[in-house]
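Whether sequence alone determines local backbone shape is best considered at the level of individual chains. The sequence in question and its structure tokens are set out directly beneath this paragraph.

===
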Amino acid sequence: MSGERLQNLFMACSATLALVYMIGLFVLSSIPGPAQPGDSLLGRLVAQTPVSIQKLMHVLLYGGLAWLWFWTLEPLKNEPAIRWLLAFLLTAGYGAFNEWYQLHVPGRFGSCNDILLNSIGAIIGLLMAAWLT
């Protein structure tokens, strides 16, 4: 297999992983706020998670997403500014979209503070990814 084909395969696989991760974040964002009888275990766990832990999870989860996008955009390593910017915009933009979406989920709400936490997580994830590569 040629180097270019291998690089394209890597990018396709890592992009798929990032998109699956985003779907997971969307599923978590779709869980209604207060626990209701008959909720799944995941729904009950999310509803019972203290707010401080939820805020920490914003930073950690969006840091992970930024790292995945940084990894996916590895073919742009010779264009570091574009790679960083794209990874940040994909992550922070998705975080803002997810907060908007939560405005339409019963018992959930979107907030500017959470958008900020998602963006901080993205920056931390990018710094960690750059440091580890």
